[in-house]
Amino acid sequence: MAKKFSGTNEEWDALVLNAGAQNNAWGFVLQSSKWADVLVARGARVVRIVDESNQPSLWTLLKITHGIWVWYCPKGPIVLPEHANEWRALISVLQHERHATVLRIEPTIAAPENFKKRKSISPTHSLITLLGNNFESLFKSFHEKTRYNIRVAEKHGVRAVRLTGEMLHQQLHRILSLYTATGERHGISSMPAAELRALVATADVWVAWYENRIIATSFHVGFGDTYTYLHGASSYDDRALMGPYALHAAAMQYAIEQSFARYDWWGVAPENDETHPLAGVTRFKLGFGGSMVSAPGTFDLGIDRLRYSLYTWGVRAAKRMRS
To answer: What's the CA gap between 175 and 30, in Å, rounded?
Structure first.
């Protein structure tokens, strides 16, 4: 039966990596002990569970509104329970921790029929670049325009570095400001400062420098054989300096040196969808090469039927009012 995991972080990550490899999954860095540390630093409750087959799933508790709580499994479970009694056992462990209204999952394959699809939280499409074993060969595989823009950045004297220690803390306010400005420029809500600070403790933070100022920045997390680019920001006024190109070239070279095999670009538009909000950034990412991957999305199951009915009725009512 399902139970709370009581082993070490290393043992947990071994289970997650094994499940991911066997199921050709991607994005399961969000099931890792590193991501658990990010969630805890944000102040979230995290529960790690193994089922009777020793398959892992990491869950975090979300508060949607007054009285409505959600147990959310980001990019998981990697391996779905096969039988109803296995789902009941898993839900029982979670509900013992904190009673919730909704079970929310992001499976590798299609969700069970009793789950309802909702707006996706984690990316449903990504691009995976195979790194190889030397950067020179990888560079030759980039699109011609991408290679040109990397050289433009070099010509301007743009330097991309991974910040650590005191230098990172000294520059953190500039990095946060750049994320805020980028979010405003694209009309999206940037990640709250508290969450970015939590991510700093676990992720690699890269910046592109020009004349003692930061013109681009990114957060990466390495897990297993994959170096994942989670978030990025750049200065619009300095766009001609091609900072993001220098930054990713340096990050990919570092990933090769650290023996990572894959570079996950995280969020991209569906293939050939030029109307998607991510179409522009997808063209940028495609310049570095890679193969598209996809996942079904995010799904909900009401586990407190009365409150779930009230919750879904409220969501529908709010949509009608907005329209």
So the answer is: 23
pLDDT digits (tens, 9 = 90+) for 223-242: 999 999 998 999 999 999 99
Beta bridge partners of 31: none
298-302 and 102-105 as β-strands: parallel, antiparallel, unpaired?
Answer: antiparallel
Asked whether 275 and 183 are in contact (CB, 8 A), the reply is: no
Predicted confidence at residue 320, as pLDDT, reads: 74
- Identify the bridge partners of residue 129 per DSSP, sorted by sequence position: 263
Q: Where are the alpha helices (DSSP H) in the chain?
A: 9-22, 33-41, 84-97, 135-141, 144-156, 165-186, 193-200, 243-257, 279-286, 305-322
Q: How far apart are CA 135 and CA 270, in angstroms?
A: 28
Residue in this structure with the two tokens 């009608």, named with its chain if needed: 320
Tell the burial category of 271 from Cβ atoms under 10 Å away from its Cβ (0-12, 13-18, 19+): exposed
Question: Where do the domains of the chain lie, and which CATH numbers do they carry?
Answer: 3-122+296-322 (3.40.630.30), 125-294 (3.40.630.30)
pTM greater than 0.90 (yes/no)? yes
Pairwise CA distance, residues 266 & 264, whole Å: 5
